[in-house]
Amino acid sequence: MRLLSVTTALVCLALLSGANAEEKLSMSDADKAMYTEMLENNPAAMEVAEGEELFTSLIGQAAYAKMLGVKEKDLPKTIANFPRFVKPAGKVVTLSQTLQMAMADVGKPVLKLESKEVVKMTAYVKSLANGQKTSIDVKANPHMKEMMTLGQSVFEERRGGRGLSCNSCHSSDVIGQRLRMQPLPDLGAKETAAAGTWPAYRMTQSQMVTLDKRMQQCMKNALLAEIPLGSKEMVALEVYVTNKTKGNEIQIPGLKR
Ligand code: HEC
Fold this sequence. Notes:
Helix content: 40-55%
Radius of gyration: 19 Å
Bound molecules: heme C
Structural class: mainly alpha
Largest sheet: 3 strands, mixed
Low-confidence stretches: 1-25
Strand order of the largest sheet: 6-5-7
Strand content: 5-15%
CATH architecture of the largest domain: Orthogonal Bundle
CATH superfamily of the largest domain: Cytochrome c-like domain
Number of strands: 7
CATH topology of the largest domain: Cytochrome Bc1 Complex, Chain D, domain 2
């Protein structure tokens, strides 16, 4: 095992960019200034507001709460608990998937997980839980236990041309090192707060992105076949990554590099 992780670290080191990578910061001073300014005035706030309009006209809080089988006043604490087992789905689902379920329930056409509308509505609905702590419970039932186990194995599975796994870049022995000038983030760290900060505005992409989409971007960068949004493996990955930062405060929309 030890040997394996040393190999992993070497693979990652081999990926680290040029000799002066250590000297450069992940963000230039100008970028940092922009980041600080955007923290005050997150461009995604408008998209969240659009998400509210869409959600209100397509579904509405009453119908949404009814579909989830909870009282409207309990929505924030329910939302903080995702991904979770949802009875009418018969499986563990993400917040975005519950929006699809609710659209079907009220007889509206079901929009794709990839659509801008679902991303905006997901951000709005999650923002209803702003200030709450993420409270995923991976031991709540056998479904959650199964998804947690699956999520961990997907996270650790080495795939693709370079034989990398998520763990190759996000395990405790490599986090903090740099890859093409970007520090490898500790997904369990308070500053990263992955679970509570997605959907987030990505400055490098000038758009709001969901956590599963962000994970697909890592797959793409590392030449791993992209796991489809909404698939069992992707939901399991979201369970696993969300559990790493369980207890962090929800602050939607997040702001990321
Ligand atoms: C080749 C290295 C590498 C691999 C492999 C990799 N990542 Fe990443 N990941 C990164 C880097 C670097 C960043 C931060 C980039 C930045 O600052 O924008 C990141 C960021 C992330 C983030 C966002 C953290 C946050 O909230 O700010 C998540 C979530 C994530 N990765 C999940 C995954 C998952 C899941 C996998 C496996 C499918 C994976 N990563 C594979 C290098 C990697």
